[in-house]
Amino acid sequence: MKLEMNKGLKFMVGFLAGFTLLGSLAIAEEVKVGVDNKFVGLTADKPYIYVIHDGSSVKVQRVQDPNYELSGYFAKTIRPCPPHCLKPISPSPDVETYGEVEMFDFMEHQLRDGSGVLIDARTPSWYKKGTIPGSVNIPFTLFNKEPDSPEVAELLEKFGAKERGDVGFFTSLLEKWGIIDTKYKTEDWDFTGAKDLVLYCNGPDCGQSPRAIRGLLATHYPADKVKYYRGGMRMWEFWGLTTIIPSAAKEQ
């Protein structure tokens, strides 16, 4: 009995020591971030964030190399217009446009708790070259199918919308009188539990995510549940933010 107690005591001491070490490392990291003026954070009070991508945790932060410069496709700013014409600040007056700080907040909250979806609306060939961590690839072409098509219906259901089916006479009457809230309901769909969506593509001169958003709105998806990250991949890479190559692309 004494031997078993000693083993248990040693285990507990070892566990507490390990736990304390992890805590100390975390504190040390925070202290380092707080005092090291050379560390480039996401914002004044947010050094980095973590998101889940394909089941793995990914640290999103800025490149720490002070000599970092944008290179490759997104470094080139002049391309033929059309088709590479600058797009309006929002695809629709009722759709909010996000900057990077709003993206960080969305990724930390709605994306983390499952109430939001971050959508890379580019074609698969673009997506395979690199994407924002936490994104799912749903090409704009899918959103542009007929609003009543099976493909669009499947999408809406994935986003948390529910087909209403036949609405009874009594329910219809209550809705008509305003007794039942119909803010997020249409004749065909109930968007009450639908997720918040953030869509993006290659940047301000890319029309893929604006077209996807207009396709969404054609289904009567609530505009206040749709956000547009206008900066897209160009501005994400401009600021030296973490990108990721999708696992499917790595395997090819």
Automatic annotation (TrEMBL):
Classification via SUPFAM superfamilies: Rhodanese/Cell cycle control phosphatase
InterPro entries: Rhodanese-like_dom, Rhodanese-like_dom_sf
Rhodanese domain boundaries: 112-245
One matching Pfam family: Rhodanese
Protein name according to UniProt: Rhodanese domain protein
